[in-house]
Amino acid sequence: MKLALLCAASVISSLCLPLAAASAQQGQVTFADVMARPDDLDLNFAYARAQADDGDHEQAAATLERLLLLRPNWDDARLFYAFTLYRLGDFEGAQRELELLKARPLPAEQGQQVDQLLTLSRVGSNQTRVTGSVSVGAVLDENPAAIADQRSGALLDPRSERKTDGAGILAGEMRIEHTLPTGHGDLLFLDTRGWVRQQFDVEIADYVSGRIRAGGVFFAGDLSITPFAHYGAYTLDDELFLQESGGGINLGYPVTPRLELLGEVLALHEEFDDTDLNRYGAEQSGTYVAAGGGFSFELTPVDTMRFKALYLDKSADLVNFDYHGYELQLFNHLDLGAG
Asked: Quick check: helix, strand or coil at residue 120?
């Protein structure tokens, strides 16, 4: 097993953004344009870029393969072909094309892109992969004593003095994946995430939390099925107030190369503890269920939007802590510059 902490978005966006800019300058190339001038290789290359921009990477790869048969030393086309194979998950094919490029006299920037994409392709072809990330930040809040985690049910003294305070935030995650020899892309995974918030003065809002999930991703045709087991623990002001255990399942079905429908079910048993902040913790213990769906849409190769609508239901040991409601989630992931 090789350990690699990599940022694929850096390479992907560094390739996509210049190509997208070139497409914008030339205008969108259509199949009719290619049919009108089939011998224009530059036009065909622009058409392959347009196909990739539309999320049709398989057709883009086929177009690029034909171009390279006609012009084998076209380095720009071969690099984009390798990138397209990488996006399709054909890591061995991408490595083959990149090794050919390494023997060519490339400009320094293009040579660096080849080296980065070759590293990513080698990692992607490993049966076992480890990836991770760490994020740091800061926050300024005008009343941090009132924001103790909303799911803790902390009973704070309403007479407590409102005080503005800052905090440092640290978040990290690590994921281990192991590809199964099914030939369909099935894999097993272990995913861990943790969050720390440390107030400068108001200690009541300090928290440390983490969760771990283990499961697999399995494919039935185009449908991806991701069952998983879940465990999480949450502390507030150095006291453990909540442990949750259970599992769930996520579903994904691509309607088009750019649009994927999503489904999600999560069922947990929540075990609350009495703390100095919350003397009614035990009565909040019970079951928590979230279920719903949504979609993921690739606006551009470097900009993806995801929307989910979930129904939430909590059944506590003490009925006063029962609740149900709805949650809407909207995420947008945009790679800027070189990722």
From this structure: helix
